[in-house]
TrEMBL record:
Keyword Phosphoprotein (UniProt): no
Species this protein is from: Methanosarcina barkeri str. Wiesmoor
Full protein name: Molybdopterin biosynthesis protein MoeA
Superkingdom in the source lineage: Archaea
Domain MoaB/Mog: start-end pairs: 186-323
GO cellular component: cytoplasm
Taxonomic lineage of the native organism: Archaea, Methanobacteriati, Methanobacteriota, Stenosarchaea group, Methanomicrobia
NCBIfam families in the record: Glp_gephyrin (NF045515), molyb_syn (TIGR00177), PRK14498.1 (NF011068)
Any one biological process term the GO annotation gives: Mo-molybdopterin cofactor biosynthetic process
InterPro entries noted in UniProt: MoaB/Mog-like_dom_sf, MoaB/Mog_dom, MoCF_biosynth_CS, MoeA-like, MoeA_C_domain_IV, MoeA_C_domain_IV_sf, MoeA_linker/N, MoeA_linker/N_sf
Pathway participation: Cofactor biosynthesis; molybdopterin biosynthesis
Keywords: Molybdenum cofactor biosynthesis
Gene Ontology terms for molecular function: molybdopterin molybdotransferase activity
PROSITE patterns attached to this UniProt entry: MOCF_BIOSYNTHESIS_2
Length: 642
């Protein structure tokens, strides 16, 4: 048989271009949760419940009204009537009034009327009474409903490899069946010299290593390997194996028979029954590579030499598989970094969940009972008991949670659906901590976030209609070496049921309101708009707000606001337009607000931030923004504070 010379060798860059252009399309199937470990998530997971679904105790003790404990001390305890006991999992109902309490176990639902839990260590129980020796504040030792995961939140993104943490998150939001991507990759090893491991070696034979290294590599990438065994250097046998694999697989990998020797036939078969895209790459080791397509199925012929085959797999095939499955990051087991913020330890040995962002390490712990402490972490650092304080800039070593997807940017601030769009269009991995606008400002001031999403209004003559966004807060906090990037505008209004008679702020008196939390820009805007509304009407703002039941309430998200209105717990909510359609609510607009981005000046020119800003200014972003959000003439404008 005649030799055939390599076609013109292509460069590594050209090889990547060809391989990345191959249409490798995974299939989707549903797996039971217990069988989903190691698989690749095919769809975004948006939770349909709050986690926890109800306010729950995080300590054993007594559920009380916090105000009943304010005057107590170790020497002068307060004595409260004991109504009964609530265990974890119990549905027993109690209503705690002034002077009353309920014994409660960790994980049990907080009784109606109670707003704090006194730890059992600071109490003593008597005959139908309990004595409290230490005061508590509102919310102390309580995990609020949705404080871990909020209803409507995207908890896992399509393309995420499902490890221990992800399986826990899926279970916690009630997912029994999981949509996963299945990418079937066929493996064909060729060569008369090959035998299977475990068989006796005879003269001239070697063990087939490629089938098993490729199998492991494919599996590690999240794809599903199919072994077709060893095929001898025979054109008819190879053709039969290829045709079987083409009918069953989404991608085929062969090893051996790709060179230009007289016994090498793989490249000729691809020419015969398909199309050859390239034969030979200018790389050492690994030159004899053939890339082709047979009946629409991509095929990559790897060299027979195990080292060369593995080299080509790691450099070209593994990235293709990860890209096809949405998991294109190469990850390490340990990584060195520096603490990006001050951390005070508990004075005992600790494994602290942390996030890694461009070699900076940040604590990712949300507190007791929060499973997203792990889903939001890349690994952990071990803190010995002798260490009570870690300064920013301290070198640390992070033990990674297996193969993790490190975020490109850490975002803090007020929730906005625009972030999901920015993440999807930019290809960046954003880790978002929804802390409200005031929390976003604080995170930038403390150097614990890269970007803050902020929408904080202030009464200021420099702004249109006397309202200026974010700049007065920056000035009042004395923030320097930062940039304020103007974002987009959001419609803000009242959220009501479809049959509600509410048509504006004038209808709020007497209506049960669910307001946003203090520190939220939306709540601050409502305050300003009510101030404008009552001006000249002969009543004070306090008189007006006192006439609105629930005005002092404070939901942490628009999702919680919508849920309260839909369930009938409130007649009116306040929030942005976006969440009304999916909840079947009516939107009564009363303003448009400006949602901006606060960015540390030192990272403004990093590739990640430049990509973020590029997408923010793109026509595609403008055209795909959800209802009620829109760009305007100032979008992308940068204001420096130095």
């Amino acid at each position: 048989m005649k030799r055939k010379e390599f076609r013109k060798l292509i460069s590594v860059e050209k090889a990547r271009e060809i391989i990345n252009s191959l249409q490798v399309l995974p299939r989707q199937e549903s797996l039971a949760l217990e069988n989903a470990y190691g698989e690749i998530l095919a769809e975004d997971i948006v939770t349909e419940i709050n986690v926890p679904p109800f306010p729950r105790a995080i300590m054993d003790g007594y559920a009380v009204r916090a105000e009943d404990t304010y005057a107590c001390s170790e020497t002068e305890p307060v004595k409260l009537k004991l109504l009964g006991n609530v265990q974890a999992g119990s549905n027993e109902k109690f209503k705690v009034s002034s002077g009353e309490s309920v014994e409660i176990s960790t994980g049990a639902p907080i009784p109606e009327g109670a707003n704090a839990v006194v730890m059992v260590e600071y109490s003593s129980e008597g005959d139908s009474t309990v004595s409290i020796y230490s005061p508590v504040t509102v919310g102390e030792n309580i995990m609020k409903a949705g404080s871990d995961i909020r209803k409507g939140e995207r908890v896992l993104r399509a393309g995420r490899k499902l490890g221990i943490r992800e399986i826990g998150v899926l279970a916690s939001v009630g997912k029994k069946d999981v949509p996963v991507s299945k990418l079937q990759v066929g493996i064909i090893s060729t060569g008369d010299e090959l035998v299977h491991p475990g068989e006796k070696l005879t003269p001239g034979k070697i063990y087939d290593a490629n089938s098993y290294t490729l199998y492991a590599g494919i599996h590690e990438c999240g794809a599903f390997p199919l072994l077709y065994g060893i095929v001898e250097d025979n054109e008819a046998a190879m053709k039969e194996a290829l045709e079987t694999a083409v009918s069953e697989c989404d991608l085929i990998l062969t090893s051996g028979s790709t060179s230009s020797g007289s016994g090498d036939v793989m490249y000729r078969l691809i020419d015969e029954i398909g199309e050859t895209l390239a034969h030979g790459i200018s790389i050492k080791p690994g030159k004899p590579v053939v890339i082709g397509i047979i009946k629409g199925v991509p095929i990559i012929g790897l060299p027979g030499n195990p080292t060369s085959a593995l080299m080509i797999f790691n450099e070209f095939v593994a990235p293709l598989l990860r890209k096809a499955l949405g998991e294109d990051k190469v990850l390490k087991k340990t990584e060195k970094g520096i603490m990006g913020t001050v951390f005070r330890s508990e004075g005992r040995q600790q494994f602290l969940p942390v996030g890694l962002i461009r070699e900076r390490v940040y604590p990712a712990d949300k507190g007791s009972g929060a499973i997203t402490s792990l889903s939001g972490a890349d690994g952990f650092i071990e803190i010995p008991s002798s260490t009570e304080f870690i300064e920013a800039g301290t070198p640390v070593e992070v033990t990674l949670f297996g193969k993790v997807e490190k975020p490109d940017l850490l975002i803090a601030g007020g929730f906005c659906p625009g972030f999901d769009l920015l993440e999807d269009l930019s290809g960046l991995r954003l880790r978002t901590l929804y802390t409200s606008s005031s929390g976003g400002f604080s995170a930038i001031a403390a150097n614990t976030a890269d970007i803050a999403g902020v929408n904080m209004p202030s009464q200021d003559s420099r702004g249109p209609d006397g309202i200026l966004y974010n700049i007065p807060t920056i000035e009042n906090m004395g923030l320097l070496d930062i940039a304020l990037v103007k974002g987009y505008r959001r419609e803000v209004g009242l959220l009501v049921r479809q049959d509600s008679p509410v048509s504006g702020l004038s209808d709020l008196p007497g209506k049960q309101l669910i307001n946003r939390n203090r520190g939220s820009g939306t709540r601050a805007l409502l305050d300003l708009k009510i101030t404008e509304f009552v001006a000249g009407k002969g009543i004070s703002k306090k008189e007006f707000t006192d006439s609105i039941p629930g005005y002092t309430s404070g939901a942490k998200s628009e999702v919680a606001v919508c849920e309260a209105v839909v369930s009938g717990k409130a007649e009116v909510g306040v929030g942005i337009r976006n969440c009304t359609k999916k909840n079947g609510l009516k939107f009564v607009k009363f303003a448009e607000e400006e949602y901006d981005f606060l960015i540390k000046k030192e990272i403004l020119e990093t590739p990640e931030v430049r990509r973020f800003l590029e997408v923010l200014n793109s026509p595609e972003f403008a055209s795909k923004l959800p209802d009620g959000l829109h760009v305007y003439e100032r979008t992308g404008e940068i204001i420096f504070f130095e």
